[in-house]
Amino acid sequence: MTAAVVEARGIGRVLPGPVPVTLVEGIDLSIGEGEFVAITGPSGSGKSSLLYLLGLLDRPTSGTVILEGRDTAEADAAELAALRLSKLGFVFQFHFLLPEFTVLGNVMIPMRKLGGSPEAELRTRAQALLEDLGLGDQAAKLPSQLSGGQRQRVAIARALANRPRVILADEPTGNLDTKSAQTVFDIFARLARETGTTVITVTHDEGLAAQTSRRVNLVDGRLVTPGVR
Ligand SMILES: Nc1ncnc2c1ncn2[C@@H]1O[C@H](COP(=O)(O)OP(=O)(O)OP(=O)(O)O)[C@@H](O)[C@H]1O
Hints:
alpha/beta; binds adenosine-5'-triphosphate; nucleotide-binding; MacB-like_ATP-bd
């Protein structure tokens, strides 16, 4: 078996307060290279919370997340930010593209942040990513000139900018029509299959979840095996 890319060891997240709120608890997971995983479960079951923990956007209050064999429990905020920038790519329900930047400019933002390559090389790589996602002729446009489905594909290109090991997506099709939603899942499946990128996506769409290679089902913040209560 190949080594895990992302591993959760007994992770839980409790929001402190007079009445503490448990978002997730006791999650053990090991996700390998090129897996395409759907996190499913009823509304409020903790899907987004789990995704944020796996994506190092939030810290567990118990347990730990291991990324490519590295225990992130001791990492400080700057180290977590560096890991997110270089190893992870995020796609959300809303595209969060910067409206004043062109499509190409948006894809180049994480590349510039990471640095280390000449501008011309970044430009070429961003253009190639857009072409790969069927957006080659949209590079000079502003996000406002694109359709919702195209904007989400730009957001995927931006998530792929620094060649992440893992793409984490939170209801990436929640705002899209059926056809655009299918395109997003086709892209994810191809990325996983052809490039070995691990894709972890939250979805409440059963038809889309069925297209992934693995389901992680949550009920009340805990993992359950589908069909077993
Ligand atoms: N900041 C917060 N304060 C209080 N409760 C919260 C907070 N964040 C999340 N919760 C609660 O924790 C639970 C898990 O939330 P989470 O968003 O992870 O669930 P989800 O499965 O992604 O839900 P949905 O499908 O509706 O997006 C929910 O009951 C939610 O209301």
